[in-house]
Specification:
Largest sheet: 5 strands, mixed
CATH topology: Cytidine Deaminase, domain 2
Strand content: 5-15%
Number of domains: 1
Bound molecules: zinc ion
Strand order of the largest sheet: 2-1-3-4-5
Structural class: alpha/beta
Shape: globular
Number of helices: 9
Length: 197
Amino acid sequence: MEYSFHVDQPEWLPVEEKSCSEIYATTEERMALVIRFSELNVRFETGGPFAAAVFESETGRLVSVGVNQVISSKLSFAHAEVCALSLAQRRLGNFDLGARDTPAHQLVVNWAPCVMCYGAAIWSGITSLVTNSGPEMEEITGFDEGPLHPEWREQLHARGIIVREGVMREKALAVFRRYRDSGAPVYNARERSRENL
Ligand SMILES: [Zn+2]
């Protein structure tokens, strides 16, 4: 009987993270790191083509980086954003990445969060989200982001979360095409409920 759960990151990730810089000063540098990790997750066949990282917004200090681990963990919530946010919270010893008297934190992810990660981002305490958006990811890969509210950006702004989009978009899309061409699985859950569609 299982009474606990945890999500391991793939074995290559700590090795890669150790070789990372301590500081990523620009938004482009931060997104480049995230896209590199998404590409590594595809190359090593350790999960979906998604990565996310948490930085201190001002200094650019890398706090955590995570990649999608749904299949290996057998947990549907093990998306890259949830992994990166959870690692940051454990490393900082606080469930609130926006706690008073601590640096503001930024989540950088290679594509717009799904409905679950959208909520996770709000609840995490981050004050800044850097991502890319549009229909291309779903069209290329077949992954489902879910019914994201059309005013998702405004709702983030209303909660004090600044959104920046369109950073290295083509490079992010290139990884999705590579994933599609690899023939790797699209692991949308809900196979049974899909029969009712
Ligand atoms: Zn997600």
